[in-house]
Design goal:
This protein is mainly β. Strands 2, 4, 5, 6, 9, 10 and 11 form a 7-stranded mixed β-sheet that branches. The chain is globular, with a radius of gyration of 13 Å.
Length: 125
């Protein structure tokens, strides 16, 4: 089993920055694609960003492009999401996701096999 644990969430004012982390353990050698999703109260879980195994390819939802940066440190088995210029609409529980298959355009959350418990990010106005 692969275990994913998010951390770094919190309360931030609009325009501020926050970095959330995802630490992986278990059979991490088989992991390939990693990504972030978020879910606001009463809303569906939506795609935020994804990153290839090498870290050379990244993908972003239009709503966060230019503000968020996804990265990973495979030696540390950790993925990050740097969030800048935060907006109230970014408020959500942020979930780490991973899969042993290479990412090939799977924006649907049902494609991903492994999930963390989520970390709350709240952006106040």
């Amino acid at each position: 089993q692969v275990q994913l644990v998010e951390s770094g969430g919190g309360l931030v004012q609009a325009g501020g920055s926050l970095r959330v982390s995802c630490a992986a353990s278990g059979r991490t050698f088989s992991m390939s694609a990693m990504g972030w999703f978020r879910q606001a109260p009463g809303k569906e879980r939506t795609f935020v960003a994804a990153i290839s195994r090498s870290g050379r390819s990244t993908y972003y939802a239009d709503s966060v492009k230019g503000r968020f940066t996804i990265s990973r440190d495979n030696a540390a088995n950790t993925m990050y999401l740097q969030m800048n210029s935060l907006k109230p609409e970014d408020t959500a529980v942020y979930y780490c996701a991973a899969d042993q298959r290479p990412w090939a355009g799977a924006y649907d959350s049902s494609w991903w096999d492994y999930w963390g418990q989520g970390t709350q990010v709240t952006v106040s106005s």
